[in-house]
Structure formats: C-alpha cells, structure tokens
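Next comes a concrete protein, fold included:
___
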Amino acid sequence: MKKVTVLLISIVFVGVASAVPAQVWWDRGDEGSTWQEWTFDDSDNPAAPEALFNPYGEPEAKLSTPEVPPDYFGCLAQMDGRQGVWTGEPLDIKLDIPNRPNLEDHKEVWLEGVFQRDLTHITITPSPTMDGYVNEVYRDISVIQSDPQWYVLTVGWYIEPNPLKERICIRISGTGGRLDRVGVDTICIPEPATVGLLGLGAGMLAVLRRRRAI
C-alpha cells in the first residue's frame, strides 16, 4: 500500500480559525460531516477541541518540538494580543480526525488556522494508508488586517477513496513557531450508487407515508 501525502515547503505566513471556510459547501452537522476547533484554552497535551461536532470519535491535537532540550516549548495564556498560544522552536502539531467508518467514494477536508512565524510544512496522511490519492484543491494565506502579526491559512484537500481518519501534520518555525487556533471541517461523500439507493429509500418512505394517510 502506498503512503499518500501532500507537502507544502517554505511558506512564510501566519493564520485565523473560527469561521467556516468560505469554500465549505455543506452545513456543519450534515450527514457524514465533522467539525472540530482548537482554541487552546489550557495547556492540556494532547488537547481536545474546545468546539466540535464529531459523532465518529474523539479528535485530538498533539503538540511537540524536536529540539532536545527545547529552547522553548509550551502554551502561553496570552501572547501578542491573543489568548491560548502554543509556541516552540520549531512547533509540531498533529491533528487526528476520526471519520465515519463506511466505505465512501471520496472525502473533502478543509483546515483554517491562525499562525505566526514560518510554516515549513503541512501534510495530510489518510489512515489506514490505502491505494488512492490526496489532492490539494485550495490554498490561501492572508494577513489579519486588524492584527498584522498574525495570518490566516486556509487549505482544502480532496481524498479518494474515503479513509476512516486523517492525520494532519503541521510544523511552524522561525524564532518560535506559534499557533493560536485551528479548525478542521470534513465530509464523506457516498458512492453514486449509494446516493441512488438513499434516494430510492426516501422515495419508498414517502409512498408509505402517503398510503398511511389515505
């Protein structure tokens, strides 16, 4: 089985994660969807999301630094006008997102985050590793106008076929990588045949309801 990754290298930026990315076309809470957001209100590590909708499992964020001993690593209650900021040199973040355990045609994953310093890489690795591919379909980095020390990163991926979970790995560096918050939206898309069966089932249910009403 081949390992599938997407790699972004040497991007200087920082990023915001509270609103739904504009490119997300479904509603949070729709069938097959998940949503999780970390604002790091405390120093728990691994960290559970402060806000979420994920009926398929418990997402978590693991934060670390490869430096031994670390120059600095930890969660600050406040930094540069923001509350709950993880920092390290560099700072590694692993997000594990469980999803619906069904065989589906494909999946979309959208990440939006608030970062500071340099983003040296971000990867997404489907699990279990499978024959298929991950395609980055969107990327945008923009400064927060009201707070130009911080930037918003938005990235979207298309995965085929649908894995049971994803691990998103991020590394931030450059005189202390900093992470303020990060959110991830996902949705599993059924195979066309499954969609047809679901439509047929809904049609039969409507007929039965009409018969009962007569």
